[in-house]
């Protein structure tokens, strides 16, 4: 087995850098601040929000969470977003997804000012990334690239296969990897449910990223020797949390591989924090439009 890409230690290093930057901004009178909108009582969402709140406080980011009942009116939710959009002390905003059934998450996400959209999911930020001029990038794709770079894994000129075309990971990651520069310039293939001969495509990869939400989808016989494998899947099973990659059969062939848990997950949180700090810095340096 090759290198195990330890997302926890990498995220710890990122957070230390962010804490120092947040402290500098606070001294300058611009302490980074995140607003989180949580609608309903979904148990998983409650856990995720508490995790984000804790992570923010650990690096010196102020966080305020607006909690709403599932029955709240759409106008009240939109009013809160508009309020945070106007508030220059709030630098980033998150609409915690999924929303209760019947709610239009897209409408709320797109209502967030692009410069405060630290999830990077609004139409504006999605379009900027696809255009090759990103402002705020979704945290999981950004975390994957950061994890590779910090472990000395070259991206430029490599054949990268991304299994999954979702808006949270697959699509934005493909756009990120296509950007010019040392952190991009990859030759990218995106696979999905209609891809024929998935195993053959996976075997062509020098770097393989899997993000579909199917436990053990990719097995050892589907990868080539020396491949770098990034498992962005999270699946709850009787054995606990597992990824989309069958670690035991793939790891012996991989030159580097992320574990689940402890790989991509910690980097996702770290890069969300990085987006908040970036947004605060842009506000402090006058990059926000009035």
What is the compact description of this entry?
With 290 residues, the chain is an alpha/beta fold.
Q: Can you walk through the features of this model?
A:
Helix content is 41%, strand content 17%. With 290 residues, the chain is α/β, with parallel strands linked by helices. The strands form 3 sheets. It has a 6-stranded parallel beta sheet with strand order 1-11-8-7-5-6. The model has no long low-confidence stretch (mean pLDDT 96).
Question: How do the strands and helices of this protein lay out in sequence?
Answer:
Elements: E1 3-4, H1 7-27, E2 33-39, H2 43-58, E3 62-68, H3 74-86, E4 92-95, H4 105-111, H5 123-131, H6 139-150, E5 159-163, H7 170-178, E6 187-191, H8 198-203, E7 207-210, E8 227-231, E9 235-237, E10 240-242, H9 247-250, E11 254-257, H10 264-284
Parallel strand pairs: 1-11, 2-3, 2-4, 5-6, 5-7, 7-8, 8-11
Antiparallel strand pairs: 9-10
Helix pairs in contact: 1-10, 6-7, 6-10
CATH homologous superfamily (4th level) name of the largest domain: NAD(P)-binding Rossmann-like Domain
Q: In the CATH classification, which architecture of the largest domain applies?
A: 3-Layer(aba) Sandwich
Radius of gyration: 19 Å
* Largest sheet geometry: 6 strands, parallel
End-to-end C-alpha gap: 53 Å
Number of strands: 11
How would you spell out the order of helices and strands? EHEHEHEHHHEHEHEEEEHEH
The name of the CATH topology of the largest domain is Rossmann fold
Strand order of the largest sheet: 1-11-8-7-5-6
Q: Determine the strand fraction and express it as a percent band.
A: 15-25%
Shape, please? globular
Would you identify the regions where 5 or more consecutive residues have pLDDT less than 50? none
In DSSP terms (H or I, runs of 4 or more residues), the helix count works out at 10
The assigned structural class equals alpha/beta
Averaged pLDDT: 96
Structural domains: how many: 2
The share of residues in helices is 40-55%
Please report the first level of CATH classification, the CATH class of the largest domain: Alpha Beta
């Amino acid at each position: 087995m090759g290198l195990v890409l330890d997302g926890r230690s990498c995220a710890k290093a990122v957070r230390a850098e962010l804490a120092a930057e947040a402290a500098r901004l606070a001294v300058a009178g611009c302490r980074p601040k995140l607003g989180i909108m949580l609608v309903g009582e979904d148990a998983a969402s409650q856990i995720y929000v508490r995790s984000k709140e804790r992570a923010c406080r650990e690096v010196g980011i102020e966080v305020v969470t607006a909690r709403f009942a599932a029955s709240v009116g759409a106008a009240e939710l939109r009013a809160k977003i508009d309020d945070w959009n106007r508030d220059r002390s709030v630098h980033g905003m998150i609409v915690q997804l999924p929303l209760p059934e019947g709610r239009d998450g897209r409408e709320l996400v797109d209502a967030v000012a692009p410069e405060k959209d630290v999830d990077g999911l609004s139409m504006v930020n999605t379009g900027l990334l696809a255009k090759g001029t990103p402002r705020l990038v979704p945290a999981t794709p950004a975390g994957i690239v950061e994890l590779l770079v910090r472990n000395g894994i070259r991206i430029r000129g490599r054949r990268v296969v991304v299994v999954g075309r979702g808006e949270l990971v697959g699509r934005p990651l493909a756009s990120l990897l296509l950007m010019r520069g040392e952190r991009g310039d990859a030759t990218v293939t995106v696979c999905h449910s209609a891809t024929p001969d998935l195993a053959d495509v996976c075997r062509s990869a020098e770097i393989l990223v899997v993000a579909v939400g199917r436990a053990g989808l990719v097995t050892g016989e589907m990868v080539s020797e020396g491949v770098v494998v990034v498992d962005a899947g999270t699946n709850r099973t009787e054995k606990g949390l597992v990824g989309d990659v069958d670690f035991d059969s793939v790891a012996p062939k991989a030159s580097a591989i992320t574990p689940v848990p402890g790989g991509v997950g910690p980097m996702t949180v770290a890069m969300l924090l990085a987006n908040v700090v970036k947004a605060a810095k842009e506000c402090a340096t006058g990059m926000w439009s009035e």
